[in-house]
Amino acid sequence: MATKVHVGMETEMNGNGRNGVPEMVKNNWKKRLLDFSGKMKRFTGCLWRTIWKAGREDPRRIIHAFKVGLCLTLVSLLYLIEPLFKSFGTSAIWAVMTVVVVLEFTAGATLCKGLNRGLGTVLAGSLAFLINYTATRSESVVRAVFIGAAVFLIGTAATYMRFFPYIKKNYDYGVVIFLLTFNLITVSSYRVENVLKIVHDRFYAISIGCAICLFMSLLVFPIWSGEDLHNSTVGKLEGLAKSIEACVNEYFNDPEIKENQDKSSEDPIYKGYKAVLDSKSIDETLALYASWEPRHSRHCYRFPWQQYVKVGAVLRQFGYTVVALHGCLQTEIQTPRSVRARFKDPCIRLAGEVTKALMELANNIRRRRHCSPEILSDHLHEALQDLDTAIKSQPRLFLGSKKNQTTSNMLALAAAHAARYKQDHGVSLASVKTDSSAFLEWKRKRVGREEAKENERKALRPQLSKIAITSLEFSEALPFAAFASLLVEIVARLDHVIEEVEELGRIACYKEFNPDDDDISVTCKRPPVDVTKNQLPSHAF
Fold first, then answer.
1. What are phi and psi for residue 401, nearest 5 degrees?
2. Alpha carbon separation from 264 to 239, 254, 272, 327, 350 (Å, rounded)
3. Where are the transmembrane segments (predicted)?
4. What is the rounded CA–CA span in Å between residue 464 and residue 267?
């Protein structure tokens, strides 16, 4: 009977196992499919948001993508059309490679790379043909040695030239293409007989690729590096203006300043000056590409890219002060709100006038006109004078009050405490006995006293820190003094920004300021002498 029950139980258990395991596996597969489906939906949504965000931030990216696709299609015809393929052969692939590496987002970058590639190809092909022509009159071994020596010397010299600052800045890509083309043609000429045909086909394929890239960049919805640099300067001025205004408003209007605040990516103050601090390399790159661009605007006869770089440098110096002003909002020691409220109106007025001046500078650069003669208006000087008067009207906040009379008493108390500790725990070496037992006893006592001394020092440090902090209470407006001094420093540095912007307007021939004129018309005439200024710079050729 027991055996039957056991067998029945075993049979039932086996049945449950046969039916339960497949059900469990089925449930696991359903769960995995649901998880995979959810991940794919999230991935698709994230991909679509990324594509939409990239196009919304700058619609020119979509235009550039279509231009690249069209250029690649055109150069692919050298392979797809039979007569063209018979003319170029496998060298047609160099046209495709040229489009991929030369066509850039802006016209200046494409010009820089295209002309560098063309110049490097011409020089490398000419030199390789000359070396091959000279080497063909020699024996096979001498020819190989001559080609190897030429490759070594030319490669060494060209690579060393890349370290020259001027060449590295303007022609680094051209030198790389020169090395690549020269070595390919020179080395392959040892095994190939008709080197001239190789040079001919490769040169024409690269020329076709460069021509298509330049046509697309300069004539089909062109994107100019100079315009990007111009708009970037306007945006930096507006960002600094918004940062200053938001910083001062937050300093006086927030109920409390949060400690250990770490939200810089969402902070509008940080976003305003971040673009300015990170703009050095971007400005230099845009200025370099702008120097290759021809005249493309009716606003000025030449693009003052060097002056834009100087304006950017001055704005970065101005931005450092804004960073320090923002740091006053996040310090550990803050001026009481009751004290800050006494200086709220003059500070907000001063920040408003600085913001107004920066926004006017940005608007003038955008419209390409000179600054107003009253850009530093009397309101700015009045706000500065009001702040100075408000500070002088509260001398006790900055020079001290009756609390500073207790400062010397607290410091004297700290000194007396330290002297008493030294007297109680000091050690006189003259009282130490000379025998070994006395020496060991003295050593044990010394170790004990050192431990007690360390504990006393740890207890003393917070007391002295409290005394030091308490001694600063006589000037509870000290943090605000730093804030106010930075505001005044911003006003002082504003003069340098205005000077550089005025110099930019003079060089670029901005129109004269007219508050009633919203049209953009240049009042200066093109100088009759030095007509090369409105052409491409000499290094572009």
1. -140, -160
2. 15, 17, 11, 12, 25
3. 62-81, 93-111, 141-161, 173-191, 203-224
4. 37
What the block records as the tokens of 515 is 């508050």
Which domains are assigned to the chain? Answer: 54-218 (no CATH), 225-253+267-396+474-508 (1.20.58)
Inter-residue contact 252 to 348 (CB < 8 Å):
yes
For 128-138, b/e burial (b = at least 16 CB within 10 A) is bbebbeebeee
The pLDDT, as a whole number, for residue 187 is: 86
Type of residue numbered 1:
M
CB 135 within 8 A of CB 146: yes
Which residue in the block uniquely carries the two structure tokens 């000025």? Answer: 300
Cα(13)–Cα(16) distance, integer angstroms: 5
Measured CA to CA, the distance from residue 160 to residue 173 in angstroms comes to 14
Q: Which residue shows structure tokens 């001398």?
A: 395
The tokens 């489009």 sit on which residue?
99
- Count the helices and strands in the chain (H runs, E runs): 20, 0
H helix intervals, 58-171? 60-80, 82-88, 93-102, 107-135, 140-161, 165-170
Let me know: does 185 contact 123? Beta carbons within 8 Å: no
Q: How far apart are the C-alpha atoms of 157 and 163, rounded to whole Å? A: 11
Distance CA 509, CA 523 (A): 7
pLDDT tens track for 5-28 = 444 444 444 445 555 567 777 777
| Dihedral angle of Cα 409, 412, 413, 414, to the nearest 10 degrees | 130
Low-confidence stretches of the chain (pLDDT beneath 70):
1-21, 254-266, 296-302, 395-476, 515-541
* pLDDT tens-digit map of 396-408: 666 654 444 444 4
Please give the Cα distance from 276 to 257 (Å, whole number): 25
Determine the pLDDT at residue 68.
93
Helix/strand/coil (H/E/C) assignment for every residue in 322-342: HHHHHHHHHCCCCCCHHHHHH
262, two tokens: 């770490």
